[in-house]
Structure formats: C-alpha cells, structure tokens
C-alpha cells in the first residue's frame, strides 16, 4: 500500500503540479486549498506526510501545522 500525503496549496496550478508529481512517485494524494480545510481533513483522516504552503487565505500554513501538531499530542501520534 502506498503512503498517503495531504498536499495543501492555494494556487490551483501548483496544487495540480503537486498532485501530479506525488502521484507519479507512487503516493496517494489528497488536496486542500487552505489551512482550515487541511486541518479538517487531517483530523478526519490518517496521513503519512503533509506538504503545506505557508501563505494561504482562510488559515495560513503555520497556524494549520500548529493545530495539527497539537492534535497529534492529544491523540498520542507522531508529530507532523
């Protein structure tokens, strides 16, 4: 089974490029367009890695990663 990656990017063309490159490398890829959507997806799913943009609308990447890390501690899983 291939690893599952959450790719987060607000620019549609870069999001598509991330998906293409990661899929060709053999990963299963889920996409989000902002930090809030990414955080919700992360909390609902199980990901082996997250590729995160920093500057995005709604919620920036740094805030999203901080929330993801906090949830990992609560769920006693490895940090992002």
How would you describe what is shown here?
This protein is of the alpha/beta class and 80 residues long. The chain has helices at 12-24, 35-44, 61-75, and strands spanning 4-8, 28-32, 49-52. The protein has a 3-stranded parallel sheet, sandwiched between helices. α2 (35-44) packs parallel to α3. It starts with a strand and ends in a 5-residue tail after the last helix. The mean pLDDT is 91.
Major β-sheet strand ordering: 2-1-3
Order of H and E elements: EHEHEH
* SS strand fraction: 15-25%
Question: What is the CATH architecture assignment?
Answer: 3-Layer(aba) Sandwich
Number of separate structural domains: 1
Helix content: 40-55%
Separation, N- and C-terminal Cα atoms: 20 Å
- Gyration radius over CA: 12 Å
CATH top level is Alpha Beta
Task: Give the count of helical stretches.
Answer: 3
User: How would you name the CATH homologous superfamily?
Assistant: Response regulator
Q: What is the subunit arrangement here?
A: single chain
What is the molecular shape? flat
């Amino acid at each position: 089974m291939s690893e599952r990656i959450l790719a987060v990017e607000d620019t549609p063309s870069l999001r598509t490029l991330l998906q293409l490159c990661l899929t060709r490398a053999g990963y299963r890829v889920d996409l989000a367009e902002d930090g809030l959507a990414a955080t919700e997806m992360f909390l609902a799913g199980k990901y082996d890695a997250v590729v995160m943009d920093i500057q995005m609308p709604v919620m920036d990447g740094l805030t999203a990663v901080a929330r993801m890390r906090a949830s990992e501690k609560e769920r006693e899983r490895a940090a992002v």
